[in-house]
Design brief:
The complex is a heterodimer of chains A (about 425) and B (about 180). Chain A is built from four helices and 31 strands. Chain A has about 425 residues and is mainly β. In chain A, the strands form seven sheets. In chain A, strands 2, 3, 4, 5, 6 and 7 form a six-stranded mixed β-sheet that branches. Chain B is globular. A four-stranded mixed β-sheet of chain B has the order 1-4-2-3. The chains are: A mainly beta (about 425), B alpha+beta (about 180). Chains A and B meet through loops of A and helix 4 and strand 3 of B.
């Protein structure tokens, strides 16, 4: 009996490579994009294997998608350098490049690859970065993302997010599957799949676990699943609905929502499912808890004053302060990692849109040009906001920069995509 | 009067519990449908079938299952709500009251109120809103005497909502469905 159950769970949780992949396209861009030239890396054949340049195209795609770079065409340029001594700076000033990336991919014994890259300042004619990676062929995309992150950070002064991961729910052929993919949509893996809805995935701060809500027991129940072992526990299966999990910044606790007392209220529970404590007490709906990065406060959605607005209370419970005041419907709070910006969904005359509020000044800006937006979350560097929307009648993911200038569409060829959350840069 | 209604309902329930086969085995059984046994103001379509054989048969009244009778208000199972609201609107009072009466008259009947929301806004907020709506219907029937043990409330939030483009469509999704046990 126990054994059967165990096999069943294993079967359900086996990570499967999904066929459908997200593809990202970028709309708009920063006011001033950095012109960068990326020369295709030279690939040197070895007796036993052929190294291919699968690296430089990915770097280019990453930088282009950020909206902060203009990736220049390099094919017509006379010199195609791969090493420092081959660089003729005048060739790159002539196409108005400010930065130049060159590199090589070589075979090493034992089915390994050596990837070398350099980032050069074309105007100052000096080297900004130089790095070598000794990798397996399977690590090429991950390495390209790391290089793109390094270039991004060197030239913009902000951390890159190309090596991070996202999670989302894909609904296809009547099945829901919780997916984890690279930030550019590649390499999607199914974490769990079910005939019943899956919603509200939340990353543990170290990026090794996901908490999520599954309706597989015919009502919402919260699970916590390890992305390393695939094992999962029931975090909360109390009377009524169990939903809206959110990890504390130290990863020891989660804020959750129960209808144990008939009305949705916020509780805090240890990550192993022990020590349940109610922290919000109202006659209205209290839901969508979100910890402040310092762990001191919980932001949440409540309709205690009529329509839903965002409030903040001490994490241990206590007086709540209203945070949003513009408009009659503001939901789904998420904070930037520095705790300075709040993103949420705001109902406007033009639809439901991603908005951002400066918590110091209270200033609100509506960012998206889509109209059925849900579930916004910040990229780890705080520059982009990933969210779900509807494009052409189909659930899709999109991202928008906090200044509203850069807009990305993440398209899935297969299903209806929703409930995204941007993870940390771990793993 | 009240007693006779109860009796007839109980009898109807018992007969309904019999399988079709059992009924076929006794084709001569006196089956009298009487619309007056129906508990609602709306008369049900009389599908009378007098027994030709045993006149001494027990005078039985059997109505079609009022929950399934399309002419009975009890067959109406959805209460609709305004956007971001969980108040049961006046136009749905008669419906809610009819189900409350049915639950009072049938203490063994069990019902689930399934709350739903339209697809706009937050999934989590809509899950809570759907719950509030199902609880609002529960409170309304509680007030009229239905017992807690007869009622379960669940919310699907916006998970069962349609792909909508206009208010007429969204309206259909903001509802509580009334589903009896074993239906």
């Amino acid at each position: 009996m126990f054994k059967n159950k165990f096999y069943l769970i294993l079967f359900l949780l086996l990570p499967i490579i999904a066929k459908a992949e997200l593809t990202v396209e970028v709309v708009g861009g920063a006011a001033q994009q950095i012109p960068i030239a990326i020369v295709p890396f030279s690939a040197q054949a070895a007796p036993t294997q052929v190294a291919q340049d699968n690296i430089s195209p990915v770097i280019g795609a990453d930088l282009r998608l950020s909206g902060l770079f203009r990736v220049l065409e390099t094919r017509g340029v006379a010199s195609q350098p791969h090493t420092l001594s081959e660089v003729k700076y005048s060739d790159w000033t002539s196409i108005q490049a400010q930065a130049l990336t060159i590199g090589t991919v070589e075979s090493l014994p034992g089915n390994r690859l050596k990837v070398s890259f350099r980032l050069l300042d074309v105007l100052k004619q000096n080297q900004l970065l130089a790095m070598e990676f000794n990798i397996t062929p399977a690590q090429q995309r991950a390495t390209a993302h790391r290089i793109a992150d390094m270039i991004y950070e060197k030239l913009t002064g902000e951390k890159g997010v190309f090596a991070t991961r996202i999670t989302y729910v894909n609904k296809e052929n009547g099945r829901y599957s919780l997916q984890v993919a690279d930030a550019d949509g590649f390499n999607p893996q199914t974490v769990v799949s079910s005939k019943e809805p899956l919603i509200s995935p939340s990353w543990s701060p170290d990026g090794t676990k996901l908490a999520y809500v599954s309706f597989e027991k015919k009502k919402p129940v919260i699970f916590v699943q390890s992305l390393v072992s695939g094992q999962r526990i029931v975090l909360a299966n109390f009377k009524g609905n169990n939903s809206a999990p959110s990890w504390s910044p130290d990863g020891t606790k989660l804020a959750i929502v129960l209808t144990y007392s008939a009305n949705s209220q916020i509780y805090v529970i240890n990550a192993d499912g022990t020590g349940l404590q109610q922290v919000s007490f109202s006659n209205g709906i209290d839901t969508e808890p979100e910890w402040s990065p310092d762990g001191a406060f919980i932001y949440f959605t409540s309709n205690r004053g009529g329509g839903p607005q965002i409030y903040r209370m001490p994490a241990a419970g206590g007086d709540a302060k209203r945070v949003t005041f513009e408009g009659s419907y503001n939901v789904s709070p998420h904070l930037s990692t520095d705790g300075k910006l709040l993103t949420f969904i705001k109902q406007t005359p033009a639809g439901f849109k991603v908005a951002v509020q400066d918590l110091a000044t209270g200033q609100v800006q509506t960012l998206s040009d889509t109209t059925q937006d849900e579930s916004p979350s910040f990229a780890p560097n705080g520059r982009m906001i990933l969210y779900a929307t509807s494009i052409g009648g189909k659930g899709s993911l999109a991202a928008v920069s906090v200044d509203g200038r850069v807009k990305q569409r993440l398209k899935d060829t297969g299903g209806d995509v929703r409930e995204p959350s941007w993870g940390s840069s771990q793993n | 009067m009240k007693k006779s209604i109860l009796m007839s309902v109980l009898l109807a329930a018992t007969l309904a519990a019999c399988s079709n086969n059992a009924v076929k085995e006794k084709p001569a059984a006196p089956v009298v449908d009487s619309s007056k046994s129906s508990q609602t103001s709306q008369p049900s379509a009389p599908a009378k079938e007098e027994s030709a054989s045993t006149a001494s048969a027990v005078q039985t009244e059997m109505s079609v299952n009022p929950l399934k009778d399309p002419n009975n208000i009890l067959s109406k199972r959805s209460v609709y709500f305004d956007f971001d609201k969980d108040e049961v609107k006046a136009e749905f009072r008669p419906l809610v009251e009819a189900h409350a009466k049915y639950l009072v008259a049938n203490p063994n009947a069990k019902v689930i109120f399934q709350g739903n929301a339209d697809a706009r806004g937050s999934r989590e907020y809509n899950l809570s809103l759907g719950q509030r709506r199902s609880v609002a219907v529960k409170k309304a029937v509680n007030v009229l005497g239905a017992q807690d043990k007869q009622i379960e409330t669940v919310s699907y939030g916006e998970e069962k909502a349609k792909e909508c483009k206009d208010e007429t469509c969204y309206q259909q999704d903001r509802r509580v469905d009334i589903v009896y046990e074993n239906e």
